[in-house]
Amino acid sequence: QIQAKYNCDVYLMDPTPRAKIHVEEYLSGKSFTGDIQKDYLDNIKNLTVDHSKLHFIPKGLWDHEGQLKFYKQSNDQYVSRSLVDGMFSDSFDIVDVTTLPTDITIDLLKMDIEGAECRVLNHMLDVGIKPKYLLVEFDLLLKGKDPNGETKQVIERLLRSGYKLLKNENWNITFGIQS
Questions:
Q1: Tens of pLDDT, residues 149-172
Q2: What are the residues whose beta carbons fall under 8 Å from the beta carbon of 171, sequence distance 6 or more?
Q3: Which end of the chain has fewer CB atoms surrounding its CB within 10 Å, N or C?
């Protein structure tokens, strides 16, 4: 919807096999396989999207480039996986990971990356990337996997770096940079 409304480039980063299949089906105009929510289909069916401005990168988002274990959930029906050991099961695939690009301006960054958010946000601030808006699901805290308080530390760092907390819905937080 964002691409259609604002005629902007959209970068999608996701190493999950089902994400790659979904993007390929969307771009080819094929019917979707798998479990697709009806409200999602209703929201996208009448959009006029410039496919040349959709960029799919089948890599995980992390604080360095390379390859990492990508942990699966115990139930194969669940799509989400995590680069963070201990978030899900011990079963994993190896995936390529990358960092946020420094050669483009990021106006809006949405992250639901299953526990990797603190490492990515710290790296983002370390290298001077400051999107105008951040939408982050803080999974470490949501799933009780944050014994060292990383989530609160990175939120405090974002606030010290000029971000304002705009909305917090159960640790799904929207930040805006103060001008």
A1: 999 999 999 999 999 999 999 999
A2: 137, 138, 141, 142, 151
A3: C
- Residue reference for tokens 């019917």: 31
Q: How far apart are CA 30 and CA 26, in angstroms?
A: 6
- Distance, in Å, from the CA atom of 131 to the CA atom of 135, rounded to the nearest integer, reads 10
Amino acid found at 55: H
User: Is-above-0.70 flag for pTM?
Assistant: yes
